[in-house]
Write a structure and sequence with these properties.
Blueprint: H1 5-11, E1 14-20, H2 27-37, H3 46-51, H4 58-68, H5 75-91, E2 94-101, H6 103-107, H7 113-131, E3 134-142, H8 147-156, E4 166-170, H9 182-190, E5 194-199, H10 205-215, E6 219-222, H11 230-238, E7 242-245, H12 247-252, H13 264-270, E8 273-276, H14 281-284, H15 288-296, H16 303-315, H17 321-337
Parallel strand pairs: 1-2, 2-3, 3-4, 4-5, 5-6, 6-7, 7-8
The chain binds adenine and zinc ion.
């Protein structure tokens, strides 16, 4: 009997290119860390917290996400957070993950940058040993804060430059265009760091163009609203720019009204190099395979589409070409066995 499409997708080897480690903080761990660190959170129970996860736009979510992150205090907390993510990712056949972290969310509360990054790095090393998952860190700047704060964060990270894969730009998009961060991205590029930016999630297509032209980005996070500009789409296709798309996030944040209307179908038809990702899985109802399953349930996708998406996840990664080729080979071996 042939496998259902969601199960087929679940078994494919894949990379995850858009996941905020703070967005993997499950309510149970949030409560456990609140207790461990004697931090109070404005929710009485896990059920209360889950009930609060009803958003009409990005900012509704960000308010809760930043409040939740306050339970993360020690190096061990960051290790435990990332370790839990890798266990989930391994179960979803993730072979490589490029993970966002938001240092300013923590350093602004007096947490040492070192505690944040060393906790994440030790979990990454452990994941490679335990699960064979490779990973890299992308340090995101919070765009609702001034560029000077981003520059200070880049300076703070100096002892760990060789442990960073790249830099990114996240948080409240509208009103904080990429051009605000041109200098910090220029400096990060000069350091040899990869550059990515959230653009076109809620913001207009001009934010996507600015990210390309003014930030020199190597990959776009989300990019949904690029579809409103045909010329921009043609450019993204011609330059083979990867889009890290997050279907369940888009649904939860009302970027799309229904999964059946998700622009992924249009993106694939247009020849865009789209990928599937979980964004903030603890808040949006699922990890990467849940995102594939949600697409599968629309009836708008077939096996070839999902093979393309899995392949794009490797070719859009920042792995060296040889490693990408090896992963794609493994993907085709897996497909042949399904
Ligand atoms: N930070 C965490 N998740 C985010 C998202 N989806 N958009 C912008 N900033 C974020
Ligand atoms: Zn994101």
């Amino acid at each position: 009997m042939s496998l259902a499409l969601a199960e087929f997708a679940a078994r494919l080897p894949k990379a995850e290119l858009h996941v905020h480690i703070e967005g993997t903080l499950e309510p149970e761990l949030m409560f456990a860390l609140a207790q461990r660190n004697r931090v109070s959170i404005p929710f009485a129970s896990v059920a209360d917290l889950r009930e609060a996860y009803s958003f009409t736009r990005l900012q509704d979510f960000l308010d809760i996400y930043y409040a939740g992150a306050e339970v993360l205090c020690t190096q061990q907390d960051f290790h435990d957070l990332a370790s839990a993510y890798f266990d989930r990712a391994a179960a979803d056949n993730v072979r490589h993950a490029e993970i966002f972290f938001d240092p300013q969310t923590h350093t602004d509360r007096g947490i040492a940058f070192e505690a944040v990054i060393e906790g994440l790095l030790s979990a990454m090393a452990q994941a490679q040993q335990r699960h064979g998952i490779t990973s890299g860190l992308i340090m995101c700047f919070l765009r609702h804060l001034p560029e000077e704060a981003a520059l200070a964060t880049l300076t703070m990270a100096e002892p760990w430059y060789d442990r960073l894969l790249g830099v990114g730009l996240d948080s409240s998009e509208v009103g904080h265009p990429p051009e605000k961060f041109a200098e910090v991205f220029r400096r990060a590029g000069a350091l040899g760091l990869k550059r990515v930016a959230h653009a076109g999630e809620e913001g207009p297509p001009t934010y996507v163009s600015q990210a390309l032209d003014l930030l020199g980005i190597d990959r776009i996070d989300h990019g949904n609203r690029a579809l409103e500009d045909d010329k921009l789409v043609a450019r993204l296709v011609a330059e083979q720019i990867t889009l890290t798309v997050c279907p369940l996030s888009n649904l939860k944040l009302c970027v799309v009204d229904e999964m059946a209307d998700h622009p992924m179908r249009v993106m694939l038809n247009a020849g865009l190099r789209a990928t599937v990702n979980s964004d903030d899985p603890a808040y949006f109802g699922g990890y990467i395979n849940d995102n594939f399953a949600a697409l599968a349930a629309t009836g708008h996708y077939d096996r070839e589409d999902f093979i393309t998406l899995a392949k794009n996840s490797f070719s859009g990664s920042f792995l060296p070409p040889k490693a990408i080729a090896a992963h794609v080979n493994d993907l085709y071996l897996a497909v042949a066995s399904l």
